[in-house]
Amino acid sequence: MGTDLTFSSRRSPVVCLHGCVASSQQIASLVGLDILKRGGNAADAAVAIAAALAVTEPGSTGPGGDAFCLFYNGKTGEIGGINGSGRSPQAQTLDFMEGRGYTAEAPPSVFDALNVTVPGAPACWCDTVQMFGSHRLSLHEVLSGAVKLAEEGFPVAEVTAHHWEKSVSALRDDGKELSGDLLIDGHAPKCGQIFRNTSLAHVLKALGEHGKPAFYQGRVAQAIVDAVDQNGGVMTLDDLSRHDSEVITPISTDYKGVRLWELPPNCQGLAALMLLNILEHFPQLKAIGHNSADYIHVLVEAVRLALTDAQRYVSDPEHVTVPLETLMSKSYSHQQAQHISMERVMERMEPGQMTGSDTVYFCVIDGHGNACSFVNSIYANFGTGLVPEDCGFPLQNRGAGFSLVLLNMLEFEMNPQRALDAPRVYVQYDHKVDQWKVNLEEGVDQEVAEELERRGHKVNWPVRGHKRSQFGRGQIITVGDWWNQSGTHAGPPSRVLWAGSDPRADGCALGY
């Protein structure tokens, strides 16, 4: 099978009336759709998808990581949120880390057990169903689709198989071996090969039957502590049993009549809101053309400003005061926008340590107008690579990318699938060369790349094949053709659901 991962196919947006799901794995999307058809709502389906992705894409997500939920109530119009991120072990103080010889400039390696924080995803799943679910289906029923997948097995998808194999090699290069629970005869599964994970099936089944105590107390909790302890970490049973999700009030900003909602810090969603506030001061974006040199230049500079602030200020609000009101104010974004010159890049701005991550995003809208936006992450691919005994999931390394397809729909009137298909830009700070790098996906014109270099950008073009994964894997569901600003469609607003799924992953959008 080839490794080029060429984008030769074309997909129309999914259009439907009653309910829709979009995720990075086709099988997981089916699991979520089944929950909707059985009477569950968007929150129920989102948790079902999260668990199914833990089975089908264990390198990106799972109960060993964190989760974040936004839920829109179609009846009341209210938006609620759950921050399902875990904390570092209590014993892992700054003095402890410095005593081990680690500093901000020389942190532990990405696979080190000291990067394991308490997994928040299982508690978030339980709380999402409890707080926002339909209550027509039990947690056991919501998780049953994932349990069945893990017990009976599923054929591994192409993109997933590639990154699975790559991660196994990376771990071995670091002197570590992925657990046999996540291998077949010592190897990563190939595309189309049936993979079963009975250990994970047992964990999910217990979670469905007994709730949070089945994960944060007892056998699974002890297995997590043992895995961390045996590899130099300091997590305890008390660290796990003390964990709980945080119910939060989402934050938002208005961009040209559309309100974007995000979770507040310690989450990174603030960066997206600051970015939109800056871009609002460039009303000519549509006129200068999609993926033109001017458009990408403005976008990159705005991303640099937003990410620099995010890295400087986003932290645990229990320990640091985050100046949210100032950072999100329109007056501050106006000041920031003034720093952008159309001719040259801004002077050097150095953010904190920034690395890539493996995260899944998925979304659901049900027939009652409820919507659930969900993120589940173990940070780097397969996290630390540490797998608690007989549990079938890796532990995250969140203790150790930016893509905004919304602009494609708002500014350039693209439908969800076309917005996801369009070539992307990824801005990152490269500490090895001490400068910002602008990665341009194949499909962006060579002349654009050359013009950006003339303006002083460090450009990496074209990014092809499986390296496209750095551009993220978006999923979109919209209600009605709201991105069409021309008013060409007569009559009242439609209740048609339009959806798209990122071609850079193995998934799809499904509706009925």
Percent of residues in helices comes to 25-40%
Task: Identify the overall geometry.
Answer: globular
What summary fits the major beta sheet? 7 strands, antiparallel
Q: What is the CA-atom radius of gyration, in angstroms? A: 22 Å
Mean model confidence by pLDDT: 91
The side-by-side strand order for the widest beta sheet comes to 7-4-3-11-10-2-17
Structural class: alpha+beta
- How far the N terminus sits from the C terminus, by CA atoms, comes to 33 Å
Number of helices: 18
Stretches where pLDDT falls below 50 for ≥5 residues? none
Compute the number of strand runs: 17
Share of β-strand residues: 15-25%
Topology:
Elements: E1 14-16, E2 20-23, H1 26-37, H2 42-56, E3 66-72, E4 79-84, H3 94-99, H4 121-132, H5 139-152, E5 154-155, H6 158-173, E6 194-195, H7 198-210, H8 213-216, H9 218-229, H10 237-241, E7 246-248, E8 251-255, E9 258-262, H11 269-279, H12 285-288, H13 293-313, H14 324-327, H15 330-337, E10 358-365, E11 371-379, H16 406-412, H17 416-421, E12 425-430, E13 435-441, H18 446-454, E14 459-463, E15 475-479, E16 497-501, E17 508-511
Parallel strand pairs: 13-14
Antiparallel strand pairs: 1-16, 2-10, 2-17, 3-4, 3-11, 4-7, 5-6, 8-9, 10-11, 12-13, 15-16
List keywords for this structure.
seven-stranded antiparallel sheet, three-stranded antiparallel sheet, 17 strands, alpha+beta
Task: Describe it.
With 512 residues, the chain is an alpha+beta fold. It has helices at residues 26-37, 42-56, 94-99, 121-132, 139-152, 158-173, 198-210, 213-216, 218-229, 237-241, 269-279, 285-288, 293-313, 324-327, 330-337, 406-412, 416-421, 446-454; strands at 14-16, 20-23, 66-72, 79-84, 154-155, 194-195, 246-248, 251-255, 258-262, 358-365, 371-379, 425-430, 435-441, 459-463, 475-479, 497-501, 508-511. Helix 18 links the parallel strand 13 and strand 14 (459-463). The longest helix is centred in the middle third of the chain and has 21 residues, at 293-313.
